[in-house]
Design brief:
Pfam families: Rhodanese (PF00581), TusA (PF01206). The protein is built from 5 helices and 9 strands; from the N terminus they run E-H-E-H-E-E-E-H-E-H-E-E-H-E. With 192 residues, it is an alpha/beta fold.
């Protein structure tokens, strides 16, 4: 396999979301504009996560190579005039979402975590579309619906909410802090 030259390597192997993004963001802050960062990760979700983060933060996602169980992501740091990290403006707390659900409001809860994360605990009646599949599955959602996007910590859901808004969805809200702090009702697969 061809070796790609990177200026800095970051080891994020064995880490789950949001840690590869947190470490990448920190490494990018310390990197000079124009240089390339190689992020080594084992979390399959990091492919979609890092690509979406790079897009939202203004950095350039170059691509990912797979070597055995290790994913090597390549990102180029943009100059400061290219880099303005965006955040979705419409947010709601877990507690506010829980109230809406308890009042049986006509809303859609969209869970953008990976399928395995969703299987073991999710909000009842939530729809599962992992962030990495969202672009290809937009037709499963109605642009007029009130969509509340959730993930584990609010990072992937923020990126998904931005993507939905860019695609013409009108009522999109990011749920913070997400499933890591969700104390409301949950469904899951039967554990044996």
């Amino acid at each position: 396999m061809e070796t790609i030259k990177a200026n800095v390597r970051l080891d994020a192997k064995g880490l789950a979301c949001p840690m590869p993004i947190v470490k990448t963001k920190k490494a990018m802050n310390e990197l000079e504009a124009g240089l390339v960062l190689e992020v080594q990760a084992t979390d399959k979700g990091s492919i979609a996560d890092l690509k979406a983060w790079a897009e939202s933060s203004g950095h350039q996602y170059l691509g990912t190579l797979e070597e055995g169980d290790v994913l090597k992501h390549y990102l180029r740091k943009s100059s400061s005039d290219e880099t303005i990290e965006k955040k979705h403006p419409n947010v709601i707390s877990n507690e506010e979402l829980e109230k809406k659900l308890n009042m049986n409001e006509n809303i859609v809860v969209l869970d953008v975590r990976e399928a395995a994360e969703f299987a073991f605990n999710h909000i009842p009646n939530a729809r599962s579309i992992p962030l990495g599949e969202l672009k290809d599955r937009l037709n499963e959602l109605n642009k007029e619906d009130h969509i509340f996007v959730v993930c584990r910590t609010g990072n992937r859901s923020d990126l998904a909410a931005q993507k939905l808004t860019e695609k013409g969805f009108i009522h999109v809200v990011n749920v913070l802090p997400g499933m890591s702090q969700w104390f409301g009702e949950m469904d899951s697969v039967q554990r044996k």
